[in-house]
Amino acid sequence: MNRRMSRTLLPLALMVIVLTGCWDRTELNELSITSATAVDRKGDRWVVSYQVLIPSVVSGASGPMKGGAQLPITVYTTEGPTIREAIYQSTLESPRTLFFSHNRVLIVGEELAKGGLSELIDVYLRNSDSRETVTVLIAKGEGRKILEQLLQIQIIPGDGIRETMKTESENYSALPYVNMYSLAKALTSESNSAVIPEIFISGGAPVTSEEQFNSTTMSSKLKLGKLAILRDGRLVGWLKVRDALGVNFIRNQVKKTVISLGCGQQNEATEGPGHSSSMFAVKLLHSATTIKPVLQGGDEPLRMLVKVKAEGTLLETDCKADLDRQDTIKEMERQLEEEIRSVIRNGFGETQKLQTDIVGFADMIHRRYPKRWREMKKAWSQAYAEIKLETQVDFTLRRLGLTSKSFTKLDEESRGGEE
Amino acid sequence: MSQSITKLQGTAIVLMAISPTAMLVVPKNVMNVVEQDAWMSLVLSIAVAAVAAWGLGSFASQAIGGVPYQRWLRGKAGRWVATLGGGLLAAYYYSIASVALHEFISFVSAEVLEYTPKTVLKGVVVLVLMFMAAQGIEATARICVLAMLAMAPLMLLAFVLLLGEMDWHQLLPIADHSWHSVALGGIVPFGWFSESAIILLIAPYMIRQKDAVGSAVNGVLISGSMLLFTVLQSLLVFGPRLVRSMDYAPFELFALIEVGNFFERVEVLFIVFWMATVFLKLGLFFQGAVHLLETTLRMPFRRMPLLAGIGLLLWLDSSTSWPRDMNETLTTSVTTALLFGCNLLLPLLLAALCRLHGRVERSGGDGANE
User: Fold this and answer.
1) 0.95 surpassed by complex ipTM
2) Residue A18 near chain B (CB below 8 Å)
3) pLDDT in tens, A108-131
């Protein structure tokens, strides 16, 4: 009986499994694959722009576009009273349905950021076709302009922007890599603050056509700029790249970076005063920050003890100091420590002026002093602005590169020998 | 049915009865109450649930090999108690199958097959459930073991891939909530752990009935550990506040996995695996309902046309009972009360009635002897 029943039920089950796909089938040639999106506000309307791939061009090109080929993307914009309606308005002008699963980048307009990002984040958390891993950037002015800009190195500009952001975060670490989920997480933390890196078009006229594109020197390029500061989901200010690096040190998000310094006392010690215009550059290879909040009683302001332990390698030097001497190395390390301290202090000072805790001190205090935090929470912005920061930096110069003397010094010595 | 279920298979069945729905419901629910202290609620819940599973397993281990639970109950507590108990449990297993089917299809509809009518999807699942019921519990038990063995490496893989996203500080401050809140947070998970009561139905078909205790306790401990692991992962990656708004936190978690530009959107792998475990849970509960109806009403529900009848009922019930798809039906206090009532209180009552009936019979026998 069971076997007979199995014989009846199994084909039935299999048949219906195949049929269910009919409603949700998606043909590739019915989709508009978006690689980047820009969202902004115009009055009370949402303006959404899309960078849509032209599949025949993308699949035909093995690298950057070959001479005279079509452009790999097209950009268009729709408007609506809500984000999703604006997106659905695209059906009025496009034969294909927008497909966001491969969307790499989301550009947020400045106007939108000033008004608040809650609705935008809600769309990303609510819908399964929008990925929380999308990279988020902010643009002053129209986000559409960023989407229109072509990149030479990477055929799909959206991909290129995302890779630029990742490379910067890995190798320069001044601007953090921000995606939708980390943005939502930061805005729902105790500090209710977040950051978004800026992207802008640097140079002359935007590169949007084939003629401009097929040139070895482009008139303009996409570039990462400042760091936007958000409090309670709204844009409240900007940090310069240097200050953003300081903030990233506090946030323990510096992976690698380069610090350039004047030779200062090194040169003065060996060559006398007036030889401080020479510079040296150190690549920071590793950095770890630990923070301890100290909350004392009474009216004492909150103190934060920031300890940075970093190490690096000498990349370049024009200094005449003898690098074989221990005290020269110690002096360089001292200079680096002072520089990092200064970068941290300045960056933190800027966030205090904005009364916006983007470094996450609120969470640290909540973790260390949960009871006191409940009282402090109400007036956190003011308390944050009064925090005393005590920084301690320990820098170790691990390597000097392949040569111990600077070529400037070597050159001078050899010329001195000739004389 | 023959006595062929091993202790390992029993453990896998208990695990599959608990995990698939608990995975969906517990993270959001516990964190809503105790935020970063969710793990404490869960540990407490697991400890209490292990004791309850031991009690249920001990009661189940008294079963006689090959004699269905309801029939054994008839011998121990009388015809009326057995009929009432069997009927109530059949209704319970059927209702959980119906709720879980609705929740499962709501998830599939929201995440994967948005435009396919849910009635069709439910119809497909019901056909599979009928097929599973026709194959019997042994076949389901073997698949449960395979699924259980696949769970650990998958979870480990997810953990390794998400390690970079985790922030251990999210666990702090520890014990920020009162013990009252911690205990309150443990109620919903405990409700789902009480699904270990399924051991009562499978114990008669185990090779050794004494193994029922071990299977129930191990099943609770393994599912508890997995749930704890999932809750901790969600907490460490998203933080307590974001999880509270997420209906499907574990899958949101897997959606973050990206390795370079070539390994992404892997949540579909985890979703497919989870769907397989849901099929097993639904299959177990549907079979539970069919089995109890069969033994209580003494009619061949495992065969056509009665099997088709109960399948059709499940399909229609699940398709028409809920006007909305919100993920709430599994988390209401009514559901939790139902879980406690049917998984813990009813067996406790039945055990008490068995003992009372035994005493009455013994005293009656003694009286007769006198």
Assistant:
1) no
2) no
3) 999 999 999 999 999 888 887 788
